[in-house]
Amino acid sequence: MKKERAWPQFIRNLLIMVGSRSRPQLRRPTWIIVLVSIVCVFLIAAYVYPPRSPSSCSLFSSSGCGGSTFDLPPAAQSRELTDAEVESRVVINEILNYYPVITKRPKVAFLFLTPGSLPFEKLWHMFFKGHEGKFSVYVHASKDKPIHVSPYFVGRDIHSELVGWGKISMVEAERRLLANALLDPDNQHFVLLSDSCIPVRRFDFVYNYLLLTNVSFIDSYVDPGPHGNGRYIEYMLPEVEKKDFRKGSQWFSMKRQHAIIIMADSLYFTKFKHHCRPNMEGNRNCYADEHYLPTFFNMLDPGGIANWSVTYVDWSEGKWHPRSFRARDVTYQVMKNIAYIDESPHFTSDAKRTVVITPCVLNGSKRSCYLFARKFFPESQEKLIQLYSNSTIF
């Protein structure tokens, strides 16, 4: 302890000594020498006696002054979180900070949400062929037991429940598919597809696109109109505020980390189960499959999602349902145009009918947005197979 106090005392004595002399007695060069000496003493003292507090920043520290020491404090919460919110966020943060185990051969899980048999199973068979070991297939058929024509789909049906359009049962089916796919530790990315979905790229392109990025492709945007924020109801408070309410396509593609978070969530899922449904108060219709995941990830991991879906759908007609493609609509040029779109449009439902454009940027570079597309009529399968066999756009 005596040694530690020696240098500071020496510095004080030096300052007293210098201060006790009158300036006229010292010439200018002498003052410069004294000042330089004081600076040198301070530097030597800082090196020999660095700060003892672990939260302090030493001038000579090998790590410098970086890290979290001088980071700005997190923004203050506008309100106190409930116990349930605190518990939920602890679990979610732990999962987000968890570094997943790297598997020898990671797979993409393809989750088919369908009422019965898959009309494009032959096309999907061509898509999967030759890539065994890189993918898994799971089929949730909500009405009829599927009849499969491809060996890749045989035995891949999971326990299913009846699904009502626009109801929470749609989200429950998505969670059921994710839960079954998560049982396989090699499944590292999860793609939700409908019975009207087709691939618009080759398997290798899709595989690399999904596994070589660290985000989930979950659509999430602000729609100030009646079919967006107009669906919000105050019963979601305090956990879900109107400013956080988002809309997006249900056809997600997500990394394993986010799939686990969905399995862990009960708080926010319950809020949407009870307060986002058709025929709510005031004849308002809220559809959980369009709002639950966009809102959930916007609140809890906004930097971890791309804010667009990799499944293309054409809303340009401005109708209640998107455009459907018949066999006569399927041409080489149409498929090429879809495959090379590099901006994702979002249409608001307010009076302005604004189109919000999201550039599709991955790892700092603009990329094609879409790997899949919907809604295609079953009659278009043969034409699609012909294009798939003879063109390079897929």
Automatic annotation (TrEMBL):
A Pfam match: Branch
Transmembrane segments: 30-49
Example of a GO MF term: glycosyltransferase activity
GO cellular component: membrane
Localization per record: Membrane
Alphabetical UniProt keywords: Glycoprotein, Glycosyltransferase, Membrane, Transferase, Transmembrane, Transmembrane helix
Membrane topology label: Single-pass type II membrane protein
Protein name: Core-2/I-branching beta-1,6-N-acetylglucosaminyltransferase family protein
Organism name: Phaseolus coccineus (Scarlet runner bean)
